[in-house]
Design brief:
With about 140 residues, the chain is mainly beta. The protein has one domain. The chain contains one helix and eight strands, in the order E-E-E-E-H-E-E-E-E. The strands form two sheets. It has a five-stranded antiparallel sheet with strand order 6-4-3-7-8, with no helix packed on it. A three-stranded antiparallel sheet has the order 1-2-5, with no helix packed on it. A hairpin with a 2-residue loop joins strand 7 and strand 8. The chain is globular. The relative contact order is 0.33.
Amino acid sequence: MLPNVPVAIAVSSDDVEFRFAEAVSLFMLIVSRGDEIVWELVANEGNMVEAGEGSFSITPIDQGAPEMLEMANQAEVMFLARVREGPPLTTPISLVRYGVIPRGYREASPAQQLAPGRYGFIAMSAQGQAAGEFDVPAA
């Protein structure tokens, strides 16, 4: 399991900010309402690679074979060690404002107007993952 990255979500009458305790190298940040993605931000750095044709299956972690769990654990340890030893994989940032695209990033899904209600947030970074919920109040 990836480490949790501390983040504070500040909501004002016209703004939502995601404030990370330290600068992080984000791979992606998603804001959703229910099953709908209302904004997706991704790193502009790096290259997308087509996986090609093949097949895969998903197994719940509690049903995984011990050797598969060990392989996943080792891959995560190697990835995190590589990230810590090398230069940042993406432009490090400590604050993201909803709908504002930081330098080095791009929108995979444009930001929609936030209506009053509850939203979810998840971010994946080289340092780990951050997640939370926030409420947009009625005007």
